[in-house]
Write a structure and sequence with these properties.
6-stranded mixed β-sheet, alpha+beta, 165 residues, Peptide Methionine Sulfoxide Reductase, Chain A
């Protein structure tokens, strides 16, 4: 067990593709897909679609900050693996469950997230303004077992995530 591990909670579209990219990042120790940011307790996958729960599909990342810092995790990976300028949409996936959001766990994470979002927005990488929400992390609900490691279980499965730029 890594005593210095930190947690990041991010949403940027379908959690399958995000998990597949993030698990390969040096310093990421493990990942879990789930739901957060809504009002329904213990939501299911079906609850998250159609706006019935308010939850986003998200990923909980345990990482070693000695290998990758929170700012680099956001700037070099999160903001490159999805389009942070499309509200409630990634590729063909549409709905509030696919919103771009950073759920911070401390005032320091909030500060870093706001700084990185502003830097990414000013960088000119994206033609439209970055709309990523930065909000306190509410309750976390792990997704059903068949969603965990989905693209490892189904290598030809759907993903709209890839690294840009």
């Amino acid at each position: 067990m890594n005593e210095r591990a930190e947690i990041a909670v991010l949403a940027g579209g379908c959690f399958w593709g995000m998990e597949e990219i993030l698990r390969q990042v040096p310093g990421v120790l493990d990942t879990e897909v789930g739901y957060t940011g809504g009002w329904v307790e213990n939501p299911t996958y079906e609850d998250t679609h159609g706006g019935r729960s308010g939850h986003a599909e998200a990923i909980r990342i345990r990482f070693d900050p000695r290998v990758i810092g929170y700012a680099d995790l956001l700037e070099q990976w999160f903001f490159r693996m999805h389009d942070p300028t499309t509200p409630n949409r990634q590729g063909n996936d549409r709905g509030t469950q696919y919103r771009s959001a950073i759920f911070y766990l401390s005032p320091e994470q909030q500060r870093v997230a706001e700084t990185v979002r502003e830097r990414v927005d000013r960088s000119g990488t994206w033609k439209r303004p970055v709309v990523t929400e930065i909000v306190p992390a509410p309750a976390w609900y792990p997704a059903e077992a068949h969603h965990q490691d989905y693209l490892r279980k189904h290598p030809g499965g759907y993903s709209c995530h890839y690294l840009r730029g």
